[in-house]
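task queued by scheduler; priority normal; single chain, no ligands, no partner chains; default sampling; output format set to structure tokens
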Amino acid sequence: MVIKVKKLYPDAVLPSFAHPGDAGMDLYAQSTVTIKAGGIEKIGTGISVELPEGFVGLVWDKSGLSSNYGLKTLGGVMDAGYRGEYIISLINLGKEDYVLEKGHKVAQLLVQEIEHPEIMEVEALVDSSRGVGAFGSTGK
């Protein structure tokens, strides 16, 4: 598979895999942004992407930013037909402001094949062993 990436700025950083076999490719911040504690910021990557039909780009956290600083991605579904700049929304769940420097990793992108199932309205669903058990239903 080939993914076409367009730099929207000459100094934008192309997505890259940190290690062979990694599932996600790193996305990089196009500018320096301060994310206030408890705040949400939209981080431009300076790139647009052409994914093949039948695929989706899913934006996920960088584990270090998430576990060490409380930065979590919001949204994150990049459809194949979208040609605009990849903008990453981050919320800072940490207790301190975080400065994300230009050129630093902001998130990772996983490209996955998608299915388009037929939707069928029914009066009832087949019973299962779980049934309607939801949050905490399996115990501790």
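post-processing summary
- The chain has a mean pLDDT of 95.
- The chain has one helix and ten strands.
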